[in-house]
Design a protein that fits this description.
Order of helices and strands: HHHHHHHHH
Transmembrane segments: 12-32, 44-62, 68-88, 140-167, 223-246, 261-276, 288-312
Mean pLDDT: 75
GO molecular function: heme binding
Strand content: under 5%
Structural class: mainly alpha
Organism: Veratrum oxysepalum
InterPro entries: Cyt_c_assembly (IPR002541), Cyt_c_biogenesis_CcsA (IPR017562), Cyt_c_biogenesis_CcsA/CcmC (IPR045062)
Function: Required during biogenesis of c-type cytochromes (cytochrome c6 and cytochrome f) at the step of heme attachment.
């Protein structure tokens, strides 16, 4: 009983903290960025990480198995994965601006909010594992898969942001070209503006704005590539460990089960992404487009297949392996 109470308390504490962190991020985005608020959000993410870690450990103790046997537990673990990705990225960059935090904090609150509020209370209960799941491979395989989902989702969302910014930049360039055409017709008016210094001021502002956009797109591309590379490594380890587990349980390394098939499709998509990164002619927009497609594929693999409840990986409603 005491473990259930502690789990309940830690669930609400972690959700409350991550909600405050998300609110702080919104304030820094909509209003002026404040150093004190940014520092508070970083401390909040650390507190969230320890709260969710405590929640998972307590659930592990009283259930007797690693808490990755159903949708509720996997969502909590996915939220934990987003928080640890945030902390690792913060350690790597130090006191510099962390663009990845704009993805990790909202993702963590979305996952945990859906787990605690979007699912039926009965689904929160830990059940005895079916024989097929009573294996040491459970922790290895499922943890690697969920860590890969978290990293790949973060990287894919950054690629989506890169596409949006680049697309808007292209529109600005097109509009600017039309504007210059109109100005060339109104030559006398341009001459007047040159004398007043208006054109030089406008050019200086546009150059600064374009430089800021360039720096932002470079940072987004940097973090997108590194998080996707990390996620792709985890995904490869997860698929290989799953194949070994499948051979122990079902006598075959690969059965073309729907879950396995979509995991292979996900791996193929991000293998293509890795190839586009090695080819200079296919970098940036092409790789970002592939990663954006991968974002949808991940959700089909993680959530969509389990909703259908078909295949060897379906041991019950919303059960994940």
């Amino acid at each position: 009983m005491i473990f259930v109470t502690l789990e309940h308390i830690l669930t609400h504490i972690s959700f409350s903290i991550i909600l405050m962190v998300f609110t702080i991020h919104l304030m820094t985005l909509l209003f002026h960025e404040n150093i004190g608020l940014c520092d508070s959000s970083e401390k909040g993410m650390i507190a969230t990480f320890f709260s969710i870690t405590g929640l998972l450990v307590i659930r592990w103790i009283y259930s007797g198995h690693f808490p990755l046997s159903n949708l509720y537990e996997s969502l909590i673990f996915l939220s934990w994965s987003f928080s640890i990705i945030h902390i690792i990225s913060k350690i790597k960059i130090g006191n510099r601006k962390n663009d990845l935090s704009t993805i990790t904090a909202p993702s963590a609150i979305f996952m945990q909010g859906f787990a605690t509020s979007g699912l039926l209370t009965e689904m929160h209960q830990s059940a005895i594992l079916v024989p097929a799941l009573q294996s040491q491979w459970l922790m290895m395989h499922v943890s690697m898969m969920l860590l890969s989902y978290a990293a790949l989702l973060c990287g894919s969302l950054l690629s989506v942001a890169l596409l949006v910014i680049t697309f808007r930049k292209s529109i600005d360039i097109f509009c600017k070209g039309n504007y210059l055409l109109i100005k060339s017709v109104l030559f006398s008016e341009i001459k007047y503006l040159n004398e007043k210094g208006g054109v030089f001021k406008n050019t200086s502002f546009l150059s600064f704005r374009n430089y800021y956009k360039y720096q932002l797109t470079r940072r987004l591309d940097y973090w997108s590539f590194r998080t996707i590379s990390l996620g792709f490594t985890f995904l490869t380890i997860g698929i290989l460990s799953g194949a070994v587990w499948a051979n122990d349980t079902w006598g075959s390394y690969w059965n073309w089960d729907p879950k396995e098939t979509w995991a292979f499709i996900t791996w193929t998509i991000f293998a293509i992404y890795s190839h586009t990164r090695t080819n200079k002619n296919l970098q940036d927009m092409n790789s970002a487009l592939v990663a954006s497609i991968g974002f949808l594929i991940i959700w089909i693999c993680y959530f969509g297949i389990n909703l259908l409840g078909i295949g060897l990986h379906s041991y019950g409603s919303f059960t994940l392996t």
